[in-house]
Amino acid sequence: MTKQIDLEADIQRLLAEHDRIAEQGVTVHQRENVLILGGEVESAQRRDEICRQIAARYPDLEIACDIGITRTQAPAEVEEIS
Amino acid sequence: MIRIAAVGDVHVDKDVVGRYRPALEELPDQADALLIAGDLTRHGTVEEAECFATEFGGLAVPVVVVLGNHDHQSDQQEGLTKVLTDAGITVLEGDATVLELNGHRLGIAGTKGFGGGFNGACASNFGEREMKDFVGTSERYAAALRAALRSVEECDALVALTHYAPVPETLAGEPPEIFAFLGCYQLGQAIDEAPTTLALHGHAHHGSERGRTPGGVPVRNVAHPVIKQAYNVYQLLTDTVDTRDTALANA
Ligand SMILES: [Fe+2]
Ligand SMILES: [Fe+2]
């Protein structure tokens, strides 16, 4: 079994370097045998692909996917810069 | 008064086309220009650039962008830049543009920037060739930003647009161990050496929104996961008189 600290590095590299993912903004935490994924991505397809790839690489780990899709509504406020 | 909309890290590919469009259609009511702080695409391919141009092109306000590290992934920066330019989007790298908005001149100087770190935790231009190449790259991008900011001759407001961060404050929320990959203090120095009104950057998806350079210039991290909406709007030159008439504005 991979050491916990290496596991996170391994997953971060998988997410960044995998051709179909290229994400650097996903967080990875391990709690007992559950891998908790967080952060936000631009589409539901990307979130699902991330979970699919990690599940395929670590079939023994349970994955909890808390990755959100960043909202794209127009802003309601203006910030004055001074 | 000028209102600028800004966002970064939109990472467009086929699956994102259409998501921003409803908010972008509202842009003319919200702002006078749109600035995008890099990571326009996922892998920096020409196909993804075409998706970006579909989503962010043909707007009723000028669009000015810099590239990010993702836009360099496929080594197709030139092809990507051409697609954007053909779609009417201004791409800055070590240069500047001036927009005439409401009778005011808004100067925008841009570069991608690079990592290198900040006070107390930065790389030095010393030792192995690889290390000197790394820090040399930080310095080259900072020099490009400095020259771009200084090239703007007359303007009422001056914005520095980068992908990498010029200060560590807007990285708060990211692991401190990776700050050196998220920005460098040399960008902040370049910003402070010019009469910069506002500095915008992206790249730090888990960072925070607000900071200031050591010289007091407001810095905003507009990475999409940080601002959590299609774009933020910043108001500059609040107490100035506008000239709505374009003929007068250009006189
Ligand atoms: Fe990004
Ligand atoms: Fe980035």
UniProtKB/TrEMBL annotation, chain A:
This is BON domain-containing protein. The lineage of its organism: Bacteria, Bacillati, Actinomycetota, Actinomycetes, Micromonosporales. It comes from the Bacteria.
Automatic annotation (TrEMBL), chain B:
GO terms for molecular function: metal ion binding; UDP-2,3-diacylglucosamine hydrolase activity. GO terms for biological process: lipid A biosynthetic process. The keyword Metal-binding applies. Keywords: Hydrolase, Metal-binding. Pfam families: Metallophos. GO terms for cellular component: membrane. Residues 2-167 form the Calcineurin-like phosphoesterase domain. The keyword Metal-binding applies. Coiled coil: none annotated. This is Metallophosphoesterase. It comes from Actinoplanes siamensis. The lineage of its organism: Bacteria, Bacillati, Actinomycetota, Actinomycetes, Micromonosporales.
